[in-house]
Design brief:
This protein is of the alpha/beta class and about 525 residues long. The chain folds into 3 domains: about 140 residues, 3-Layer(aba) Sandwich (Rossmann fold), CATH 3.40.50; about 130 residues, Hect, E3 ligase catalytic domain fold, CATH 3.90.1750; about 170 residues. About 45% of the residues lie in helices and about 15% in strands. The strands form 6 sheets. The protein has a 5-stranded mixed sheet, sandwiched between helices. The protein has a 3-stranded mixed sheet with strand order 12-16-17, with helices on one face. A 3-stranded antiparallel sheet has the order 13-14-15. The longest helix is centred in the C-terminal third of the chain and has 38 residues. The two termini are about 25 Å apart.
Length: about 525
């Protein structure tokens, strides 16, 4: 029986309708399409639910997965509520969607019409629908941006989240929002500016010292567990605290890099953005703000693009075993000292190690994999060979399950904190959304791990491809000319690594390489298709 899929995506109009109480859009669309499939005896094998409303295919992971599956001819057709849901991006994106469905012979089915991409009349109608969708999107977006700019000039607050020290409130008898001071947070803001300008305990501590003082006092920021220098820099440079509204300070800029569109948000100068008197009250005076800016501008600027370039071959691969945060590289100011792999979580007890030692350990583990897998495959011990991976998957599944339970408890505790008025409704909304997203990701990860465990042994690993791939990496690794190239190769083999170190190498009974590193391999049926 032919297989079909459903693709669901929420548009901006849907979000506005939900705000007026018209119900959850994706659920309604799913019900309509499932009823259509049942009525027409169509077998639905997968439902793709896009929870983001991105302009391009690159910003929509479910669309990327749908196109990849359609290319393999998995579906006879895809059901959508309307063809405009498939692509509202530029001409390239529309061409990718149209070509994928045409070459794979996948039909596009809506409740009102079925489009056969191999029928020239349907193809023209489909392409025209995508063109009109793009035109409508640009018109709506242009109107929306004009409205936002006009609101900012009127002094209304149009960002989604209020800055620390304020809460976002509806303007009485008018459209839009403004800010209202949160007294206890406003006092912290005043202290931050005072400490930064005048210092405390007889010295100026800088952003790092202020962050440490706030963390030691138990003051919590809105969206994170602890204060960092970056958050304080944003506060000190934000004119919202003087009663102003700034808009367009970090506009999205699109550039082409290696044939791909890359989005960035560079900082604009004040003359290139909107800066107007806000409808809200100031927390600090303009004089204090100007003094803080003078101090801030006297500091050396970070190198251009320093956050974009991958400088560590282990970037995005090694996870802290104690707090779950990603380990990162910290460079040393001394030329004779190596960079370190560290956990930046403020109160994490995991000890750092020289990055070259951790990198050397990674390569040693990969070399051991090759030796062990070759021996087991040569002796035809496929059962044993598979068993090690089954054990890894089992442990991974158990770890994810524990993470899911912890996140569910966090959500329950948030309701208690809201009832006890520890959280404001706005704080609850922001933190609930963040934890819910982490919970959703963990549940998807858990589902994928279960599916991997249930696959037959013959599909689990492919040594004749996996072993040569590792051998090739080990052969060329030292000759690769950049950390980014090394990182890219490692990510084709390693799913993640878990790092643990209890004591610093400064202790006499310990050494710099006294750490534990567990690597989890990627399954070759994911690496090689």
């Amino acid at each position: 029986m032919p297989a079909y899929a459903i693709y669901l995506r929420k548009s901006r109009k849907d979000s506005e309708a939900e705000a007026h109480g018209e119900g959850e859009t994706l659920a309604r669309h799913k019900r309509i399409l499932l009823d259509y499939a049942k009525k027409n005896n169509l077998k639905i094998t997968k439902i793709y639910e896009e929870i983001v409303s991105g302009e391009s295919i690159a910003a929509r992971p479910q669309m990327q997965q749908l196109l990849a599956d359609a290319e393999q001819g998995l579906y006879n057709g895809v059901l959508v509520i309307e063809v405009e849901r498939l692509a509202r991006g530029d001409t390239i994106d529309q061409g990718i969607v149209a070509q994928t469905f045409k070459l794979s012979g996948t039909k596009i089915i809506t409740p009102s019409k079925t489009y056969d991409p191999n029928n020239e009349f349907d193809e023209e109608y489909f392409e025209f629908g995508l063109f009109m969708s793009r035109r409508e999107y640009k018109t709506i977006n242009r109107r929306l941006q004009r409205g936002r700019a006009a609101a900012a000039k009127e002094g209304k607050y149009i960002a989604s989240i209020a800055p620390y020290g304020y809460e976002k409130i509806k303007i009485p008898n008018d459209k839009g929002y403004t800010l209202q001071i949160v007294p206890e947070q406003a006092e912290i803001i005043k202290n931050i500016f005072d400490w930064y300008i005048n210092g405390f305990n007889g010295k100026k501590p800088g952003l790092g010292g202020i962050a440490k003082k706030l963390n030691d006092l138990g003051v919590k920021p809105c969206r994170h567990e602890y204060w960092g220098k970056e958050a304080l820099r944003d506060i000190i440079s934000n004119p919202v605290y003087t009663g102003k509204i700034r808009w367009g300070y970090r506009k999205i800029r699109k550039t082409a890099v290696d044939g791909k569109m890359v989005k960035s948000r560079p900082i604009c100068s004040d003359e290139n953005c909107i800066l107007s008197e806000g409808m809200h009250k100031a927390i600090i005076s303009q004089d204090i703000f100007d003094k803080a800016q003078k101090t801030l501008k006297s500091l050396p600027s970070p190198p251009l693009g320093y956050k974009k370039e991958i400088k560590s071959p282990l970037a995005g691969l090694i996870v802290c075993s104690k707090c779950g945060h990603m380990m990162t590289m910290r460079s040393s100011s001394a030329p004779d000292k190596p960079p370190y792999l560290v956990c930046h979580s403020r109160y994490c007890a995991n000890v750092s190690s020289p990055l070259p030692l951790v990198e050397k350990k990674v390569l040693a583990i990969l070399n051991n994999w090759v030796g062990e897998y070759k021996i087991k495959w040569k002796n035809n011990e496929q059962g044993v060979y598979m068993k090690s991976d089954s054990e890894i998957l089992k442990k991974t599944t158990e770890h994810i399950k524990k993470k899911i339970d912890t996140l569910k408890k966090q959500l329950d505790n948030m309701y208690d904190l809201l009832e006890q008025k520890v959280y404001t409704p706005e704080q609850f909304s922001v933190r609930y959304a963040a934890v819910s997203k982490r919970l959703e990701d963990a549940e998807n990860e858990y589902k994928a791990a279960l599916e991997s465990r249930q696959k037959p042994d013959g599909e689990s690993l492919c040594p004749e491809k996996f072993i040569p791939h590792i051998e090739q990496l080990l052969k060329v690794y030292d000759a690769l000319d950049s950390a980014a190239a090394k990182n890219e190769m490692l990510k084709t083999i390693i799913a993640k690594g878990v790092y643990t170190k209890e004591k610093s190498g400064a202790f006499r009974e310990s050494s710099a390489d006294n750490f534990t590193l567990i690597l989890y391999p990627k399954l070759p049926n994911t690496i090689f298709k």
